Amino acid sequence: MKKKPHILIFNPDQMRADSLHHLGNEASLTPNMDELTNEGVSFNNAFCQNPVCTPSRCSFMSGWYPHVRGHRTMHYMMQNDEPVLLKILKDNGYHVWWGGKNDLISADKDITPYCDEKFIPTDFDPAKVESDHSWQDSFRGEYKGKNYYSFYAGKSNIDDSSFIKHDWAYVNALVDKIKNYKEDKPLCMYLPLLYPHPPYAVEEPFYSMIDRSKMNLVESFDDWSLKPSILKGIYERQRLHEFTPEDFRELKATYLAMCLRVDYQFGLIVNALKNAGIYDDTAIFIFSDHGDFTGDYGLVEKTQNTFEDCLTNVPLIIKPPKGIEVKPRITDALAELLDIPATVAEIAGITLEYNHYGKSLLQVLRGEDKHKDYVFCEGGRIDGEPQCMELGHKETSLYWPRLSVQASSGPEHKKAVMIRNKKYKYVYRLEEHDEFYDLEKDPYELENIIYDKAYKDIINTFKERVLKFMVETADYVPAQKERRR
Fold it and tell me: Is 22 helix (H, G, I), strand (E, B) or coil?
């Protein structure tokens, strides 16, 4: 029986694809991830299936689109009867080590079916990392001033907050795990980091290493009338219209410095794998759950039902273990994060015994540059779904600008579905204008041309494909039959 490879799933949070230097960002510094393209494949057209954390993670751990089982909210996680890649690997002989964030399994559920080890640091409480109000108050400035909702903290000391310490604890723990791993079982290492999720804060030397003069700034919309109304609502509440271009450059540079720190930490793990003699036998997957506005359009953070490329286009780099054919390169092939379970399963020699919507990426690794004709992303809610609104955030919350708009009774947080290929993007929206963009002419999606008659036939083709997509993936029928009599 062929020995199963080790698997590393390195999963930064809220990292844009264009934060990678090798994908063309001259301001970015990601040398370790760049180097991995000499042995693996980087996808510059990889897309998440929902632009916020929990729905995206439920999707890439199951191979299901968020709507299949209602995973459209931050507070509905994977259920006991649903497939999770970590559990599948554990059930098939892997020793699963999980460090870092959760946002996948409810905190009141037993996590042991999903992993053999869940590392918990002892020097801070992980549950309180993102709600460190004393630290937040130190950088936000006056109430509702221009920086109050910007998430910008800038240069920080490592001891300023557990938010800054968070990832180091997990990275160091994984390095120790690799160094001391002696079991016969193949090792699955799942490391969902917190960075570069805002607040935008990072310590030296990373903070000063980014060249501010190389920042690419995407200006706000001249006309909001054909844009999703949630964007204008967030723009008005976040108050970043008071930011200068220098402010935006500094914010974006801090974000890229956070990405640089993530890349450095990835390098530490690679060195540990090499020192332990298991690097060649390890399949490495690097991908993020979704992206971040990072000042584009005068916005920060993300939304739950808009699909700009800065939110939906994510890093995806795969290095297979030895013995699996690979043509190292950057590929234009369209890929979705829900392709991850099928790809991991094929590499590990595991059969996924349930219906899923992913497609293994191994053929792309071998050299094909065609994978899917379209990719999809979705989000939002209908009326009468308060469980999707994320209620309870007061105006003092960093997230109030977005969540206050999300909880409105208007069209701002209604359901929407994105379909995209390499040339065009179409978004079907409930109760608002649909969207259509010619990405070759308008790569930043500044002008919605949904009513341009010159594109009528193309738009109709995309509409029909959305209908086919929703019918094909509308639900999931369990494989287990129940007795009728």
Answer: helix
Flag whether the pTM goes above 0.85: yes
DSSP class per residue in 73-86 = STT----TTS--HH
Q: Could you read off the pLDDT of 355-394 as tens digits, one per residue? A: 999 999 999 999 999 999 999 999 999 998 999 999 988 9
Quick check: helix, strand or coil at residue 387?
A: helix
Q: Please, what are the domains in the chain?
A: 6-379 (3.40.720.10)
C-alpha to C-alpha distances, 352 to 112, 219, 357, 370, 404, nearest whole angstrom: 20, 45, 11, 23, 40
Nearest to 303 by CA among 51, 44, 29, 13: 51
- Helix 245-275 to helix 162-180 angle (10° resolution) is 20
Question: Which three-class secondary structure state does DSSP give residue 468?
Answer: helix
Q: What pLDDT digit, counting tens, does each position of 239-287 carry?
A: 999 999 999 999 999 999 999 999 999 999 999 999 999 999 999 999 9
CA dist 295 to 44, 251, 358, 404, Å? 21, 7, 32, 20
Q: For residues 189 and 174, give the distance between their C-alpha atoms in angstroms, rounded to a whole number.
A: 8
Residue labelled with tokens 């630290």: 135
CA atoms of 452 and 434, how far apart (whole Å): 12
Q: Given CA atoms 255, 261, 262, 263 in this order, what sign does their dihedral have?
A: positive
**Helix crossing, 53-62 with 340-348: angle to 10°?**
40
Strand 416-420 versus strand 117-118 pairing type: unpaired
Check residue 1 and give its pLDDT: 45
> Is the C-alpha dihedral spanning 230, 231, 235, 236 positive or negative?
negative
Beta bridge partners of 376: 419
Strands 187-192 and 95-98: parallel
SS3 of 287-313: the string is ECCCCCCCCHHHCCCCCCCCCCHHHHE
DSSP 46-60: EE-SSSSHHHHHHHH
* CB proximity list for 180: less than 8 A, separation 6 or greater: none
Rounded Cα gap, residues 459 and 451, in angstroms: 9
The CA distance from 276 to 290, in Å, is 32
Could you tell me if 401 and 408 are in contact, meaning their C-beta atoms sit under 8 angstroms apart? no
- Count Cβ atoms below 10 Å from residue 470 Cβ, excluding itself: 15
